[in-house]
Amino acid sequence: MGMGFSIIDSGWTRPKYPLSRQSQETFIQYSLSAPMWSWRAQSDTWRLGNILRSRILDGAPWHNEPLSDVLPSGLKSLPRIYGCETCRTLFIENHSDYPDVPTQCQCGEASSTGDQNESSALNS
């Protein structure tokens, strides 16, 4: 009963072997944050609870979960999430891959970015 989402920060480069000063090999680290919402029956509201944090170490030798396993189309496949301060609802930019997700808040404020299939839509 709510909208679940994760926030993915754009990746940054880290050395693959930090103790070896000779190595020029790198990998990309992405940080993920997933807000957990809780329902308050007494006040009939949703409240932000904990935020679960995780990461993807794309290309790290000790980590075998590449970004392509989680997001086969990469970060460009993700729509940007917006929030309305007036009615406190979340909505996404217009995106043809997500036809059933709201693209405007309850007040009528629409995302003005258009379809973003061709350009990067990093959620950071």
Note the main attributes of this structure.
disordered C terminus; elongated; 4-stranded antiparallel sheet; two-stranded antiparallel sheet; mainly beta; 1 helix
Instruction: Please give the count of helices.
Output: 1
Secondary-structure element sequence?
EEEEHEE
Summarize model confidence as the mean pLDDT: 76
Largest sheet: 4 strands, antiparallel
Distance between the termini: 25 Å
How large a portion of the residues is in β-strands, by DSSP E? 25-35%
Helix content: under 10%
Q: Give the tally of β-strands.
A: 6
Shape: elongated
**Rounded to an integer, what's the Rg over CA atoms?**
18 Å
> How many separate domains?
2
Poorly predicted runs of 5 or more residues: 113-124
Structural class: mainly beta
Write the layout of secondary structure elements.
Layout: E1 7-8, E2 12-15, E3 26-40, E4 45-58, H1 67-70, E5 81-83, E6 90-92
Antiparallel strand pairs: 1-3, 2-3, 3-4, 5-6
Written account of the structure:
- With 124 residues, the protein is mostly beta strands.
- The chain folds into two domains: 7-72, no CATH class; 76-124, no CATH class.
- The protein is 3% helix and 33% strand.
- The chain contains one helix and six strands.
- The chain has one helix at 67-70; strands spanning 7-8, 12-15, 26-40, 45-58, 81-83, 90-92.
- The strands form two sheets. Strands 1, 2, 3 and 4 form a four-stranded antiparallel sheet that branches.
- The radius of gyration is 18 Å and the shape is elongated.
- The two termini are 25 Å apart.
- Mean pLDDT is 76; it is low at 113-124.
